[in-house]
Specification:
- By secondary structure, the protein is mainly β.
- The protein has no helices and 30 strands.
- The protein is globular and about 45 Å long.
- The relative contact order is 0.19.
Length: about 325
């Protein structure tokens, strides 16, 4: 899902960075803030209310503006924040947006965007150049239906996963043509239940991680939607959350959590063991104040969409 940006550079700290299949496998203990871009506004390169963020195979950055009410409700940038193009217009039809939020990119650089203000056309599909392809998902309660489509993720077969943080409180899986394949989860506090799930990501083994925001935790499921484990409780300590809203997974299958009300990003291994955190220290301009989106590029650079400052921060992992 996918609701969100930054660059990174510096020297020392412990960790390992291995080149694997043209990607860097990152196990960093420190992330350094190196850049930030974007500001409040409605012009190119500006955001009225920054939302989701995603990265394509060429490390271009896409950002949604879910309260833009103008053209260019999705914008595309180079990694250093140079504006490339914008697309998407406010409206009610299949190709238009009301409140675009969560976003993900498949292996062909096809872009999927959740429009949580328009669940009649819940998920919008576009090319990397902003050409509309299709919408799928309908308003309602039940499999294949949405009240508030939230975060999006894709697996190795380019199947699309979507959370619904409305009454459905579930995760739904679709093929690349928008056909429903699976739905799991229900409202509640128990294992396998959700209270406003806001994002979903899939690791290299097909395991499904869900940001269960209202329950202040992340849950892990197998590829069939069977509950495996959970981590996180309410609080501000290491491994605790105050509204975990967005997830990202690196090529080592570590889990990055945008812990929005704690104003930080936390990193965990694939079993939920705490590794490190960043974004909540340093000079004031370098601190994130309400992370609502997170994405990683092919080099392990972390881009964070800051909802309060309406900009993108860039963090570089130190090996």
């Amino acid at each position: 899902m996918k609701f969100s940006l930054f660059v990174i550079l510096n020297t020392l700290a412990f960790g390992v960075m291995l080149l694997t299949a043209n990607h860097f496998s990152v196990y960093a203990l420190e992330f350094v803030h190196t850049n930030m871009w974007g500001e409040k506004g409605v012009a190119q390169g500006q955001f009225n209310q920054i939302g989701g963020i995603a990265v394509d195979s060429e490390d271009n950055i896409y950002v949604t503006d879910f309260a833009g009410y103008t053209a260019n409700m999705v914008q595309k940038f180079t990694p250093n924040g140079t504006f490339i193009l914008g697309f998407g217009t406010f409206g009610n039809g299949p190709q238009y947006f009301t409140n675009p939020g969560g976003m993900t990119v498949d292996s062909n650089d096809t872009l999927y965007i959740a429009d949580f203000g328009n669940p009649t056309y819940a998920i919008k599909e576009f090319t990397a150049n902003g050409t509309f392809i299709r919408s799928f998902g309908s308003f309602g309660i039940g499999p294949g239906l949405f009240i508030n489509p939230g975060g999006l993720g894709v697996d190795a077969e380019d199947n699309i996963y979507a959370t619904d943080f409305g009454e459905n409180n579930n995760v739904q899986k679709f093929d690349k043509n928008g056909n429903l394949l699976m739905s799991f989860g229900s409202p509640g506090l128990q294992d396998g239940q959700f209270n406003n799930p806001t994002d979903v990501e899939i690791d290299s083994s097909g395991n499904i991680f869900v940001a269960d925001s209202g329950n202040e935790r992340v849950q892990k499921f197998d590829s069939n939607g069977n509950f495996l484990m959970k981590f996180g409780t309410f609080g501000s300590g290491e491994g605790q959350f105050r509204t975990p809203i967005e997830l990202a997974i690196d090529v080592s299958d570590n889990i990055y959590v945008a812990d929005s009300k704690n104003n930080r990003i936390q990193v965990f291994d694939n079993n939920g063991t705490y590794i490190t955190q960043f974004g909540n220290t340093g000079a004031l301009p370098e601190m994130i104040e309400d992370p609502v989106g997170i994405a990683l590029d092919s080099q392990g650079v972390v881009y964070v969409a800051d909802g309060r400052d309406t900009d993108v921060h860039v963090f570089y992992p130190i090996p």
